[in-house]
Amino acid sequence: MATIKDIAREAGVSAATVSRVLNNDLSLSVSAETRSSIFSIAERLQYKPARLRQLKQNTERAGKTVSLLLWCSMEEERDDPYYASIRRGIEVRCEELGLTLGQTLRGRSSITQLQNTDGLIVVGGVDPKEIIQPYTNTGTIVFVDLYEELLEFDTVKLHFRQAVEQALGHLLELGHRKIAFIGGESTGERRAHYFKKFMQERGLYTPELVRLGAWNSADGYRMMNELLAEPERPTAIFAASDPLAVGVLRALHGQGVKVPEEMAVVGFDDIEMAAFLQPPLTTIRAYPEQMGKAAVQLLAERLGGREAPAHSVIGTKLIVRESTAPSRR
Fold it and tell me: Taking the model in full, what pTM does it have?
C-alpha cells in the first residue's frame, strides 16, 4: 500500500510537500508542474489517505463476528469480579472497533456449540487442545489469562510475577518474615507458584502457611481461621484475590486480631469495595478490563491480515492503604 514517503521519493520532494499538495494547501509555494507530478504519481500508486484506509478497515470489520468462551461459571464470575471486568473490556472494545460480539459460551465442553464466527476469544484456564481441534480457524484465536505458554497463538496475560513481587516486597520492607498465602485452586495458577518461588529464594517459605480453596470470601474466611489455629501464627497474609481478602478480614475481626497491628493483609485485584473495607485494603491493582480490550485489539489485527503471533503482558500496581503496617514481632 503506497505511502506519502513513496510518492515523495518518486517526485523528488519532501514528504511534507506531498502532504500539503494532496491536502490542497494553496499557501505552499510549489510549481504547477510539481503539483501535477505529485497527483499523477499518487493516482498511479493508488495512494489512499489514512482516513480513507481507516474507513475501509472499519467497514470491513463491521461485518465480522467475535465469539467469547469463558472458563468460569456465572456464579464464579459473580464471586470474583476479575473475569467480569475482562468480559466488560471485550464488550467495550468490540463496540469501539465496530465488531459484533456474537455467542458467549461458558465451560470447556461448550466449544462444541460454537457456530460460525470470524474470531474467538478464550478467557481462563481451559486446555488449548480442546479448543484448537474443533475450531479450524486457529489464526483468529486469542487466549486471555491462560497460564500455559502458547507461542504460536495470540495471548494476553497479567504480569503475575511482578504482582507477587510487589506484594511480598512491600511486606518484607515492613519487616514481615512469616507471611502466609491464601489462594484459589486452579490448574497452573501463577500467584501460588511465584509466592513459593519468591519465599524459597529468601529461605522464608513454610508450606504450613499456604492454603488453597475456592475463589470466594467464604473460603477466605475458612482458610484464615485454619491459619489462626496453627501453633505459630503468621504476621502477614497475602490473599490472591480481594474477595478472598474480604473473608480473611472477617475471620481476623471475628477472632479479635487487630489489622494491621497484629496481622497485615494484602489483597489482589483492587476491586471497588477494597478502598471501603475496614481497614481499607492494601492490594495489587490489576487491569482486567485492559486485558479484555487488548484481546480484541489483537484479534482485530489478525482479522486485518497480521500473520505473526503477538503477546500482550499487562502490568500491575501496588496500592498501599491501611491494612498493612510494620511487623511488631
Answer: 0.78
pLDDT per residue as tens digits for the range 77-125: 887 788 889 999 999 999 888 888 888 888 766 666 777 788 899 998 7
- Amino acid identity for residue 149 in this structure: E
Secondary element (H or E) of residue 96: helix 81-97
Angle between helices 32-44 and 4-11 (to 10 degrees): 130
Give the bridge partners for 123, in sequence order: 70, 144
CB-based burial label for 21 (10 Å; 0-12, 13-18, 19+): buried
Tens digits of residue pLDDT in 148-201: 778 888 999 999 999 999 999 999 999 999 999 999 987 678 999 999 999 999
Q: Are 320 and 266 in contact (CB under 8 A)?
A: no
Which grid cell sits at 288?
482486567
The three-state secondary structure class of 45 is coil
